[in-house]
Write a structure and sequence with these properties.
By secondary structure, the protein is mostly helical. 68% of the residues lie in helices and 4% in strands. It contains 4 helices and 2 strands. Strands 1-2 form a two-stranded antiparallel ribbon.
């Protein structure tokens, strides 16, 4: 039984870390990027992900933690890629077009 408790503790810690990372990423994007990507506004996502962090940190109820995990997954899978696309691919370190390769623009051998 002790091994199961250790596993569940690690699972709760992983869900907390995932929610914290999603919250920080949501806070880093600009408000106008949310509007341009046609997603809910920044305040909405900060509240949802902030509640997910608080639930994971304070309330040991698995149902609420799973709801927070789902919100974090939705942010990572749907909202974050749309925000990155409209904000010019933040995180790449430089601007560029969708046809750029890792070593510069790809022009099809022209």
């Amino acid at each position: 039984m002790q091994g199961f408790n250790n596993f569940m503790g690690l699972l709760y810690l992983a869900m907390l870390a995932f929610a914290v990372v999603a919250f920080v990423m949501a806070a880093l994007f600009r408000e106008d990027a949310y509007r341009a990507a046609d997603k809910q506004n920044k305040g909405f996502w900060l509240i949802i992900l902030g509640v997910a962090v608080a639930v994971n940190f304070l309330v040991p109820m698995l149902f609420l933690q799973i709801a927070g995990l789902i919100a974090s997954i939705v942010f990572f899978v749907d909202v974050r890629p749309a925000l990155r696309q409209v904000s010019g691919g933040r995180g790449r370190g430089r601007g560029g077009s969708s046809s750029d390769g890792p070593y510069g623009p790809w022009n099809g051998g022209r």
